Amino acid sequence: MDAGARKPRPGPAAAEGGPGTLVDAEIEEPPAPEPIRVGSRWQLLYLGTCLVLIGLNLRTVFSSFSAVLPEVTAQAALPGWSVVVLTTVPVTLLGVFAPLAPALARRFGAERVLLAAMAVLTAGLLLRPAELGLPGPGAGQGAGHLPALLAGTAACGAAIALCNVLLPGLVKRDFPHRMGLMGGLYTTAICASAALGAGFTYPVYAATGEWTRALWFWAVPAAVVLLLFLPAALRQPRVRRQAVKEGVSVWRSPVAWQVTVFMVLQAMMSFSVFAWLAPILRERGVDGATAGLIVSVSIVLQMLGSLLAPALAARLRDQRGINTVVALMTGGGFALSIFGPLDLVWVWAGLLGLGQGSLTAVALTLIMLRTRDGHTAAQLSGMMQGVGYGVGSTGTLLVGQLHQATGSFTAAGILFLAVGLLAACFGYRAGRNRFVGEGPL
């Protein structure tokens, strides 16, 4: 779009919309004071396509690494601690960098920050399989890959954190009359990103015989999207904005904390699935290609859940029932994938996928359902993403530590039964028809 092609930001009334309403990237920014000329239909179509394609690159980092984890561990001679770090750090950084996104967007413009984030993501994906150091004495071939794996993975996590926060705001700003459609496409793209990483990484490895090429493969779509988004991002004017300080403090709201803890528990399960489901299946005797296919099918079902659950949640008087059910489905499906009968592994993975997609979607939908205005909704979104991803990353860490300590994933299955039960309890509390700023019932 050209420099004058921005739409006006919807005010609080618009931001209170339905389940498809998305939260602004620039968390405390007031609406534009005057209407601004709208860009052409083709410009908006081009921008919308770029945003969806960016979403299609935001989960391959997690699922691609786990798809070839046994091969990377063996051929790169990775120590046990590094595997835990590599599966935990990117999720932790989602929480660390999420609060920085609004300030960066206010200073430099959301499009430019998003463009820079995609550049960092592409660089991280290129760096991740590189060999920067020399193997030490007695180390296996490829031991020098560890520094690049750590640095590249950290860069990817930081970049994805910024994209997570900025993308919904751009969708809300430029597609106020198509937020339901664009929100669905964006959510589906993220789920599809995880499915693609899980399903195609191992076949690339099998075809090339090198895990480095299997991981390098995912830098290609990121680079293509970076180039596609470049013209749209550079056309946007650089405008500095002033933050607004009034309104409800979500950090002192019991309702906000109930929603946030619900988000933390769902993040613990969701990112543990991305990081560990394929290795769990591989350890149970499933071959690499089949394990990747099972994970992909599970994630496809996540897409179905993420499309259907928000609409159902918004039509209900409150969300206590749906929150409880999808939390138990997710925790139970994850646990059964670990110690349930292997003959029914497709059933357990399907239960997990449908539950997990629905759980993530209803947790995000609560941002709108538990707030009365757009400013409070944006504050709650920032709180949920910062705390949710930061603390939620402990799930992948705990799974790795339990596996190292016990030599199996059985203890992790018990852990996620407990996490699922806790998520059901907090989901029940968060699902009551209350609003941020009101006291508890």
TrEMBL record:
Alphabetical keyword list: Membrane, Transmembrane, Transmembrane helix
InterPro entries: MFS, MFS_Cyanate_Porter, MFS_trans_sf
The keyword Nucleotidyltransferase belongs to this UniProt entry's keyword annotation: no
Record has Membrane as a keyword: yes
TM stretches of this protein: 44-69, 81-101, 113-130, 150-171, 183-202, 214-234, 255-277, 289-309, 321-339, 345-369, 381-402, 408-428
Disordered as annotated region, ranges: 1-25
Protein name: MFS transporter
